Amino acid sequence: MNKDFRVVKKCRICKSSKLYKFLDLNKMPIPNGFRKKEDLNKKEHKYELGCFFCENCSLVQLTIVVNPEIMFKNYLYFSALSKVMMNNFSSLAHEAYLAENLDENSLVCDIGSNDGSLLKFFKSYDSKIVGIDPAENIAKIAELSGIPTEVEYFNSISAKKIRKKYGLADVITATNVIAHTDNLYEVFKGVDILLKKDGVFITEFPYLVDLIDKLEFDTIYHEHLSYFSLKPWNLLVEKCGFEICDIRRLAIHGGSIRITHRRKNRNLKNPAKKTLEFLLDLEEKKGLSKKETYDEFSLKINKLKEELLTLLRSLKKDGKKIVGYGAAAKGNVLTNFFGIDTKILDFIVDATPYKQGLFTPGMKIPVYAENRLLKKMPDYAIILAWNFANEIMEKQETFSAKGGRFIIPLPEIKII
Ligand code: TMP
């Protein structure tokens, strides 16, 4: 294995080598690799960004795995910045609290706990909590706000350490982190080690049905190793001795899915059986187990590229000023793949203090605080963090009131 990345040869779930490459977004830097001004002339590492479809189990996965140390050691993603995300975490914690009868003796462990945003809600229900996250910088912030955090990747080894220190967990959560994990069997091994006999494992990740339906190609990047539908996910769950006992679709992040799992128990009736069958059927109808669906998806991306570039170039020709809104990783994928640089976007505004003052990877677009939008009053702001479009447009009503227009790039271009 190369030190920086590993080439995927077999499906992460079913181990088949029948992998069909349907997407090539070219080589690009890791999309959370924001850069300091003084480093802009230094060489930037670029990694292939492409996707396989497993012809055996239908898992969609990246063609390479970049060394996680490169991506996650110093991470610039903070959950707490979005109201929508906080509401989602609040509902997850509330549902789990009710369903699992949590009390002050219960333990909740969160894998990929980030700044502790989800665990704060569990803490408010008096449960004992512990976060697990490899990003040292963010774990420090979580600790400072009273969320005990173990700086670790979650696997069977760290699970044993955590069990020894904190005991068995009633609930283990993992939101938007499973797609980041190469060895999914190790995650379930860890869950098996750390979870009480009748405890639950709740996970959330973007749903492939939404990704394909809404052309969310820019959510495909090095951090996200897998793009799950329920067909391969359920195969994994069963192989690991668990079963899905609740599923719901969520609007968050362009369309996600929240799945609750428990250890397989033949004596208990499975309450999620019908929903699972319904969604597996939906996936089949959407063509998620056919190569052609993915070929069509790739064609649509190239069409969108042409349309968006035509629009932006014609606006520039008319002397319009355009900026970006949200220096999201997905925005960096879109700008890099489409070749949108500072000739088109003057700058990007973003609420994340750590991103402000830095430059986007690849396209080197400067990132500023959100108040620069009204200060500079460009004609157009393209919402690169389109998953938060409503939240952003509500927040920036004054921009619209003063005649500024928002462009939403996906699934088809909208000017608002
Ligand atoms: P994400 O889609 O990967 O979660 O990234 C969203 C980005 O958008 C993140 O960098 C924060 C930024 N953002 C704002 O700048 N303003 C906002 O109001 C919201 C909700 C997000």
From TrEMBL:
One GO MF term attached to the UniProt entry: methyltransferase activity
C-methyltransferase domain segment(s): 252-411
Keyword set includes Aminoacyl-tRNA synthetase: no
Database matches in Pfam families: Methyltransf_13, Methyltransf_14, Methyltransf_23
Gene3D superfamilies the record matches: 6.10.250.3100, Methyltransferase, zinc-binding domain (6.20.50.110), NAD(P)-binding Rossmann-like Domain (3.40.50.720), Vaccinia Virus protein VP39 (3.40.50.150)
Annotated InterPro entries: Methyltransf_Zn-bd_dom_put, Methyltransf_Zn-bd_dom_put_sf, MeTrfase_14, SAM-dependent_MTases_sf
Swiss-Prot/TrEMBL keywords: Methyltransferase, Transferase
Domain spans labelled Methyltransferase putative zinc binding: 11-72
GO terms of biological process kind: methylation
Keyword Transferase recorded: yes
PANTHER family: BLL5978 PROTEIN, TRANS-ACONITATE 2-METHYLTRANSFERASE-RELATED
Full protein name: SAM-dependent methyltransferase
